[in-house]
Amino acid sequence: MGLALMCLLPPSPQVFSIVVFGSIVNEGYVNRLDEAQEHCIFNRNRNACNYGITVGVLAFLSCLLYLALDAYFPQISSVKDRKKAVLSDIGVSAFWAFLWFVGFCFLTNQWQASKEEDNPLNEGGDAARAAITFSFFSIFTWVGQAFLAYQRFQLGADSALFSQDYMDPSQDSGMPYAPYTNEEDATDAVGTYQQPPPADAFDTETQGYQTQNY
C-alpha cells in the first residue's frame, strides 16, 4: 500500500518522526542558571514539547503497523476487508498530515515567542530548529502517502484487487483442482447400476439343456 511503500523509501516519515521526537527528548528541555528545574525550550510551554514527542512516536508506530498490514494484505480474501485496509491507509495518511501541520505551526509559534532570558546560553537551539524543520517535511511526506493510497484505491477498483476473483499469488501453485462431483449425480449413477442375476438362474437354464450324443 501507499503508506507502507513510503515508509520504506527515503525520505521516510519514520526517519522524520525519529528526528522530531528524538530532538525534543534529548535537548528540548533547558533551565536557567539560577534554577534547577528544566522547562520546555519552546517558550517554556510543556504542551509544545509533549505534542511533538507524542505525534512523533505515534507516527513512527503507525508506519510499523502499516508495514505489517502491507505484508499481510495478499492473504486477505475478503473484498470488504481489502477495501477497508486501503481506505484506512488514505484516512490515516491524511490524518497524520493534518497533525504534522498543526505541530509545525504550534512549535514555530512557541519558538518565536521564546524569550532570550529563558535560555541565555542558547542551549538546544539546533534541536528545536531540527524539530520544526522535520515537522514541516513530514507534512508533505504524509500528503504523498495519502495520494499514493488513493491511486491504489482507484487502480484496485478497476482490477481484480476488489473482486471475488482475487487470489493470493503465494497460494497459486499452478496445479488444477480435482473436479467437483455433485452428490445427486453420484446417487443417480449408483441407482442405475444393476446387480448380476443370482446363481440359481444359471442352474435352471442348465437343467433345461440336453446334451446330444454324436
TrEMBL record:
It comes from Accipiter nisus. It comes from the Eukaryota. Belongs to the synaptogyrin family. Its main location: membrane. InterPro entries: Marvel (IPR008253), Synaptogyrin (IPR016579). Residues 1-154 form the MARVEL domain. This is Synaptogyrin 1. Residues 173-214 are annotated as: Disordered. GO terms for cellular component: neuromuscular junction; synaptic vesicle membrane. The chain crosses the membrane at residues 51-73, 85-107, 127-150. It is a multi-pass membrane protein. Keywords: Membrane, Transmembrane, Transmembrane helix. Residues 204-214 have a biased composition (Polar residues). It is found in: Membrane. The lineage of its organism: Eukaryota, Metazoa, Chordata, Craniata, Vertebrata.
